[in-house]
Amino acid sequence: MKKQIKKIGVLTSGGDAPGMNAAIRAIVRCAAYNDIDVVGIKRGYSGLINGEFLKLSRRSVANIIQKGGTFLETSRSSEMFLPEGRRKAIDALKGEDIDACVIIGGDGSFRAAAAMSEESDIAFIGVPGTIDNDIWGTDYTIGFNTAVNTALDAIDRIRDTASAFDRIFFVEVMGRKSGFIALEVGLAGGAEQIIIPEIKTDIEDLCQNLKESFRRGKRSSIIVVAEGNQLEDTINIAKYVEMRLKAECRVCTLGHIQRGGSPTAMDRILASNLGIAAVTGLLGGKAGTVAGEINNTVVYTPFKDTWENKKSIDQRFLKFLPILSI
Questions:
Q1: What does the alpha-carbon distance between residue 317 and residue 200 come to, in Å, rounded to a whole number?
Q2: Quick one: CATH architecture of 145-259?
């Protein structure tokens, strides 16, 4: 017989993402609507192991939907990859009489949740919160749209100075294993080239394309580079291009600026939808899954599938770029 859920725990784990607060708010209020208590867990899995619990009410999550980051704070915990670490976490949850737990994070966070699902009778469900957008089972992850718009704003400003000085700018965005941010930012920002992990870029082809664009009359260019590209460190790419083309090159690394800031309307709506989907999923017997959205429909994907399947970039965007950058 399915265990009745009377108290839900919620934590944010891994890298922070704009919209996490909106997801927490939705989880708390959906639980309250169903007469279920909610406990916030501070500092992700590290806080869980240390028993850092905070009772949440519908009023305690007021006025957080517009705030970036996560008011519960977050962390990365190596202990959760060990059976003894997970045992501490499970014991802490049981000590608080928590029947189910919502994990907001990425694939590393979901791996720990999947393991605890098998090692206990506590129900776990995931909500995809990562700016990288690399989680299988959802069209978009919470924080991705905000990160893209933050990077796009920076590129629009960089283009002004690139044009003024006839320079090539290499703009590095986040994406150690995926090029989703770079691809959408590059397309929306009018970049001449995009360098991403999924596609191996030939640096000589890059130089030739830039040389050809100069021949057609362009005096400045923007190259968007994902930090995890297969080619080279961004600074070294820029140095090589500068040497080959005798053109002035500059590097701008956006870094963690992409994680911060108030979430966009799209991220707030997505987070609210998936927060509610997590609670209703737990009540509907969907434990052991991640709540996502595909084609505007809520779907529940088993934890294991979210990391065993690789999410593909949109090949159309790669075809658009050479057309739009001539």
A1: 16
A2: 3-Layer(aba) Sandwich (3.40)
**Whole-angstrom Cα distance, residue 69 to residue 249?**
33
Would 7-143+263-308 and 145-259 be classified into the same CATH topology? yes
Which CATH architecture does the domain made up of 7-143+263-308 adopt?
3-Layer(aba) Sandwich (3.40)
pLDDT digits (tens, 9 = 90+) for 69-126: 999 999 989 999 999 999 999 999 999 999 999 999 999 999 999 999 999 999 999 9
Residue 158 · residue 220 · CB < 8 Å: no
Report d(CA 125, CA 89) in Å as an integer.
16
pLDDT at 1: 44
Catalytic residues: 132
Distance CA 210, CA 245 (A): 8
SS3 content of the chain, % helix, strand, coil (to 5): 45, 20, 35
Looking up tokens 């990391």 gives 307
Number of neighbouring beta carbons within 10 Å of residue 231 = 18
Q: Where are the domains of the chain?
A: 7-143+263-308, 145-259
